[in-house]
Amino acid sequence: MSVASTTHIGSLLDKMSSSDKDFRFMATSDLMNDLQKESIKLDDDSERRIVKGVLKLLEDTNGEVQNQAVKCLGPLVCKVKEPQIEIICDTLCSNCTNMSKDAEQLRDISSSGLKTVIASLATTNSGATNSISKKIMQRLIAAIQQGTTIANNATSKKTNNAFDLANGGQSQLEILDIISDMLSKFGANLSSFHSSLKQILLSHLNSNRSAVRKRVITSLSYLLETCDLALFNEILTHLLNELQRAPPSKSSDTNTTIKTYVQALTSICRLASQRLSEHMHEIVRITLSFIENTPSNNNSDDQQYDDELIEYCLQALETYLKRCPKETNQFVPKIVDICIIYLKYDPNFNYDDDDNTMSDDQSGDDDDGDDDKDQDSYSDDDDLSWKVRHSAAKCIEAVVVTQHDILQTNCYRKIVPVLIERFLERENTVKADIFHCFITILQQTKTTYAHQHQQQHSTIYSSIHDDEDSMDTDHLATKNSYVSPLAEYVPLIVRSLAKIMKDKDTKNREGSLVVLTNLVQVQHNILIDHIDIILPNTLHSLSISDKTKKYQGSHTEAKSTQTISKSLHSNLKITALAFLYALLQTHNDSARFHKHVKLMLPLIISHANDSFYKIASEALLVLQESVKIIRPKSTVIIQTEFKPFVEQIYECTLKRLKQKDFDQEVKERAITCFAYVIVYLGDLLSSDQLQSCWPILTELLRNEITRLPTVRALTSIVESPLHLDLQIVLVETVPILASYLRQNHRTLKMNTLSCLRSMIKLYSKHFNKPILKTILVELPSLINENDLLLAQYALKLTTSMCKISNNQTHIDKDQIQPILNKVLELILSPLLQGTALDAVIEFFCALVSQSISYEELVKLLIKPIYSQQKATTSTAASTTNDHHPHQQQPQQQQQQQLVVHRQAFYSIAKSFASLTVANLKESAYFIKKFQEDLNDSKCSDSIKILALLCLGETGKYTDLAQSSSNLQQILLDIFSSQSDDLRTAASYTLGYIGIRNLNSHIPFLLSEIARSQTKRQYLLLHSLREIIAYQNHENLPQLDEHIDSIWRTLFAHCECPEEGTRNVVAECLGKLTLLKAEKLLPILRETFVNHTEQQKSASPYVRSTIITAIKFTIVDQPQHIDAILKSYIKDFLNGLEDKDIDVRRVALVMFNSAAHNKPMLIRDLLKELLPKLYNETRVRPELIREVEMGPFKHTVDDGLDLRKAAYECMYTLLDTCLDKLDMFDYLTYVEDGLKQDHYDIRMLTFLMVVRLSILCPTIVLQRLDRLVQPLKTILQSKVKANSIKQEFEKHDELRRAAIKVFLALQQIKDANKVACINDFETCVKSSKEFHDLYNTVILEQQQSSSGFSFNTNNNTEAMDMS
Length: 1362
Hints:
- Keywords: Repeat, Ubl conjugation pathway.
- The chain has 1362 residues and is an all-alpha fold.
- The chain is globular and about 115 Å long.
């Protein structure tokens, strides 16, 4: 340590000895800050002086100085060496066990200090931690044993002692707390003390004092979490035996033992549920036996119950359900029945009179107030039955959370009516629990309805195509079948909540509104028949003023009460407005709201002007939805009674827009609301009103904070069907918008492009050349492959400008040339495809009619390929002069093919075809040129590929096969070329050139397929595939008469030994089946079933081809085939049990495709399919073989692809069928995958563990030890020194991924209490290599948005394994 540091420390130590308490306090504070610095290093002498000085301050007479000294101990033990740590711990332990009556304060402060030291030691990587923790535990155990002995002697002499554990001596209570901390932090390292601790804790579990029992239970739980299995079973057996020997009594005092042991088991389950799971059946059975004698089962009305015992038992059942849902599953019906009874358990209050008032839910405010006073008049401080009801509600919620299929069980119909009935619970705490439980049920219903809605969507789609007139109410009933159990309870829900919505207690009103908000989100229009009840009651919460009762007391207290009251009312109003917004959004029949508009709108307008930004923000959302209520469409004539509100809404939003000092959220919502007013009600505003608002919008557009919402609002106004006069707006805003295209703000640029495009399409007459030029000059920089979506938007805008039919806005070639140059560069990009390519083609077509000729544009398109022919030829010539011409020939051929990227050929060809269709007369020259190039041997492969693709794309629109008699033969000749790209292009073209004359083209293709060899057949089948695939996009009636002949030809090639050929055949069969599902799908099924029954003699190739064909019928969009396929798919999935490994593999691929694209096909079959799926995740030794490669032997696993396909399918099921999975079985196979030694399998299971930690953390928590151990093994594994570079890279990626998985597991609640998590972290921090890697991964996740996302609302993948 430097001289300056030594001097500084010495100065602080001197001040710590000062007689001034302020000096001592500040010196200790400064010392603590210095010790927390990384740079400070202490020598031995400084360590001794600091330790001595801090320990001395623990005996200080000033409490603040003592507390500061305790805080200083934490960073101090992280800086000093082991001898000094031992001195600190010995001193603190001695103080904690000081029996002197005068040392009470010192004992308390030393106990706090020891806890601080233990917490700090747990975070250090020092090897001394284990030995010090053992010494501390030894001292603590000795102190407890000594205290117990002294207490026993004192009892015989009838004296009191601070260490009397049985009677709750304060010192011993502190020691028990410290033991709990020690076990939680170092439990695994203290195994030598576990037996002693067991004897001490069990002997004092029946203490007379609850404080002792509570601490003993906590310590016992931590002990059982880390002790060995034999000791765990010994202690658990003791607890269960004691429970069975203690019969429940009516008296609460005699039930103390039962309550203690029930609490102990509950606490153990929270910390060590994975160990307790195998004993759970017996534990639940015993727990239920204590509460089975429910009020309804006992005939005696005078029967008394131990409310506290019932409460503890219900809390225990709640914990068991959450921690061990699989093991408790069989008890769920019984638990639900008991909880329902205890949810109604209120022996001291009669609800009969209250139930009678339920029918009169529309009674006046005064009546409601009287009812509330009657309820408030009831008070019984000794009544603890509310705790029973509270625990019952929480237990029911645990059932709902853990039972994903609750809607399919009888429990749903049992729970829902009782919860609705208990909405009138008199105790507000219990009422809040009931509301929360009911909201959980609503959320489960919503999730299940989403799956059912998806399943029924395809059924309805098929019905529409079967019979356009058959879409009746039956379909709607089917569609809503999952919600029907809830729908029947809606009237009861409304009736129960209507009274609460006028309750005097704002918390109750707020809770009822939250329930309704969740209810309307389950299904659209679910409250449509109850608007007249719900809406007035909701508006009642908005109409109240922030009044408080008269308060007699000090002015400060009265002011505080008013503040609390105002806060409560504000929360209520925010909740009411949020519900109103949800109600208006989810209910489409605006006429139902019309009778309430006069009452609703003044309130909403008033709240939109509220000074509290949250209320104003929510009110503006409601206001914009209200605009659509009074006028749903611009074509609808607004009712006369609503016209006065138009100006009020306008003035309200305009006032908000003019304000300068309000919240950002309010600003944005005010802008959006104002746009709604203009869009829906603009024609009802005077011209002066409209003209006055445009300058404000322009000002907001210039403001950096409000420009984005203003651009969006402006887009809505421009697209309004009212077609308002916006000339003034356009003139002022277009230059501003054009300048935003230069901003480094992607979202702003995209919204600006959309806005400008809408302006040009709808108000082109207001644009002239100067205005267009301001836009055009900004567009070239946006057109590149780095952001294709932005380029697409820019091209669409340019296209719209080219299409303006106005001589004054004609775009010159010079103006468009920079954009054209950029597009010609973009078309060569390998990334250009899909909608971006469509935008390029649309731009070219618009350009030809405006600024450039067809011939010139086509020449520019093909120039990159033709201009490089000479360079390619020169390269080829120089290559042939090389010393090794035969070795260089493939390179020459490859150079010719890669003049531009393969995708660029297709992009140019599609653009050429689209231009040609619009200019057929001018296209003859180029079509003839391309045909000549195909016959020209001097042309490079690049030119021939371009010629082939251009002809093929043009063939989609015009019959080229007949216009050129020898074109088909030319293409067949090219099939013999050495170039793969050339053959592929010829195959593609052969499919399309005759697509407009299938009656002659199909027979030609089928005859060629029949007489060709295998390689030629493969290319011809590709041609046939292009025709069938095109039929799926554009109906070609001529194909129907050839389906039978095509089908026979395809089936003739199902047994082809070439897998590539079979895959093409399968795709053709699948696409063809989509066209004629009723006819062809049964044929596929029958053929597959026959070949499956004759596996010994039948070829497996046919079965694999048929399954692959089925995969191609499963697409993400609803299809006519879906309803038929659902009834047949089970037969095809029987391929999972096929003897042939390839058949099983393609069956898994098809299963995965169905789970991803159409989960409704397989959801109901998962119970049968999952065992077959899991079976394929096993490593099969019989599929592993050794292959000799020269002097080396290489191991080949033929089952690897099968396992990968199985794990991929499992991962897909997490997203689409989570509620159908038994997560414990699922996790077992995930754990097996973590132990497999293949890179791909491990990475897949890593992704699954991360996903599971977010979707079902409670279940993962129970298996943490099994999940973390493989991660630790991977982290500690080594790669052989002679391995190749790729092996080292894969190993590094595996270790990084393992740490990412660990970080995800760490985020689970209570994971830090599990020993394996702490062990892994210790393992990481004990090695510099691992610690550096750990810190690197954390840093990457903080800096990159593509790392983990622990947000449970995130539906995207949360892990980047690259």
